């Protein structure tokens, strides 16, 4: 027997948090009865419906995409813009992105239909490190880099300790190339952190996610994660290290 929200998330319909909300909102039935209690346990033979639609238990799939610029990190878009899921036309499972990269940000993005995995990868309490490389207008001083590392007060709270390193600079054009490693995922976090120190981001790429990087891929390329990588990512989220 498993918890209802876990089964819904595992079916790829929603993240664990969203699944909890669906239950609390009375949108889920088990064997025809509305269930609003989050702890409810269900078994393989129970008939679960979400918004009146029977839950199908799909095989889990996991992809790593080198997201190109000009593509939306969403499963669909009401304005008709191209989404990262559109880059997987032959995949039948209901894929969605794990977290988000901005429309103009490039780099590593995971996609899956496993809501439970997506929750582990994105919830800040699991502290998966993500490394970004930003081209900034203005060259951050050592003190500004320290500010990024100590935490920046944004309107939705202070950022957690980070690592920041100036990789190169061009004094003539007044631009810096800065590597920033964070383990949260607030909306537009990296850009807002650089804005706060007065060095706005002109170009942004996510180079790594946990131990995964873009090795061997060009923008627009993707590959399936191996079963071992998926397992290691879970271990990383759950224990903070990989064995
Ligand atoms: N931080 C940002 O500002 N943008 C992204 O796309 C990712 C992290």
Automatic annotation (TrEMBL):
Record organism: Bhargavaea cecembensis DSE10
Entry-linked SMART domains: S4
Recorded family membership: Belongs to the pseudouridine synthase RsuA family.
EC code(s) of this entry: 5.4.99.-
UniProt cross-references to Pfam families, sorted A to Z: PseudoU_synth_2, S4
Top-rank taxon: Bacteria
A single MF term (Gene Ontology): RNA binding
Entry keyword annotation includes Isomerase: yes
Gene Ontology cellular component terms for the protein in this record: cytosol
InterPro entries for the chain: PsdUridine_s_RsuA/RluB/E/F_cat, PsdUridine_synth_cat_dom_sf, PsdUridine_synth_RsuA/RluA, PsdUridine_synth_RsuA/RluB/E/F, PsdUridine_synth_RsuA/RluB_CS, RsuA_PseudoU_synthase, S4_RNA-bd, S4_RNA-bd_sf
Residues in RNA-binding S4 domain copies: 2-65
EC class (word): isomerase
Biological processes annotated in GO: enzyme-directed rRNA pseudouridine synthesis
Descriptive protein name: Pseudouridine synthase
CDD domains assigned to the protein according to its UniProt record, in alphabetical order: PseudoU_synth_RsuA_like (cd02870), S4 (cd00165)
Keywords for this protein: Isomerase, RNA-binding
């Amino acid at each position: 027997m498993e918890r209802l929200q876990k089964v819904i998330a595992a079916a790829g319909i929603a993240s664990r948090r969203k699944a909890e909300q669906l239950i609390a909102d009375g949108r889920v039935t088990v064997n025809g009865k509305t269930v609003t209690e989050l702890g409810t346990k269900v078994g393989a033979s129970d008939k679960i419906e979400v918004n009146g639609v029977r839950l199908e238990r799909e095989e889990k799939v996991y992809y790593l995409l080198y997201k190109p610029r000009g593509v939306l990190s969403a499963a669909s878009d009401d304005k008709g813009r191209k989404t990262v899921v559109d880059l997987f036309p032959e995949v039948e499972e209901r894929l969605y992105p794990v977290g988000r990269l901005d429309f103009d940000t490039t780099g590593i993005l995971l996609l899956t239909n496993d809501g439970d995995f997506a929750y582990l990868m994105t919830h800040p309490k699991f502290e998966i490190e993500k490394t970004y490389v930003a081209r900034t207008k203005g060259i951050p001083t050592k003190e500004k880099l320290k500010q990024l590392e100590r935490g920046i007060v944004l309107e939705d709270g202070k950022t957690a300790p980070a690592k920041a390193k100036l990789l190169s600079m061009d004094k003539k054009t007044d631009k810096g190339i800065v590597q920033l490693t964070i383990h949260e995922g607030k909306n537009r976090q990296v850009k807002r952190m650089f804005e706060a120190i007065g060095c706005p981001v002109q170009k942004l790429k996510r180079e790594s996610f946990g131990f995964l990087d873009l090795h061997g891929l060009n923008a627009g390329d993707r590959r399936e994660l191996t079963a071992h990588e998926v397992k290691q990512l879970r271990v990383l989220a759950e224990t903070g290290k990989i064995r």
